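Encode chain A's predicted structure.
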Amino acid sequence: MPPEDMRIATEVAIQQGLDFPWWSYVFTLILSMTGAYFGAYLKRKAEDRATQENFDKLRDQLRKTTQDTEEIKTTLSRKNWLTQQQWAIREQHYMSLLSHLMKLSLSLEDRNSYYMEPGSEHDRTRSQGEHFKELSRVGYESYQAIRELIGPASVFLSDKAIESLEQLVRDHWGAAEFSAGTAEYVSKALKLVEIAQSAVLAEARNELTHSLADT
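Encoded structure for chain A:
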């Protein structure tokens, strides 16, 4: 009941005394108070419900954001792991190829030293010693290992590295088949191996640099 109505009702009640219908007034007052209470209660419940709904939405959004963040972290972690594994495989192939190229190069250098004296290229006895034969065996095994590694390595190594190795195989075959003698073959093969070795080493360094930049 509005304050003005209550004031008027009070004045009337005082004037009428016992003849005033008190029970009706009290009942009306109780109804007014009850209505005001329940109105405020319902309003508060509505506000609480809206607050709870907003909180639930915020909580769901936070949960989804956290889930998305974890998925991104997992994806990045998996990518870094794959990158590391890919480089580990590349490193293994590069190290094997460079090791065999070095052995082949050293064996050719040592054999080439047998023909440093003028006219020694015509001396067949120089290639008959046990040390020379051992150098030839080491060089042959290293060369064969390089040929066998080209296929698997082509999956992981750069095109330039594989191309330089394939070029070595082609040119080495020509040097072995068409050289006038052992001395000429050794000289040609040594140059071919040095070219391939430099190319593969440069590609290995280049890929390592890019791999480190991506991690």
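The chain has a mean pLDDT of 77.
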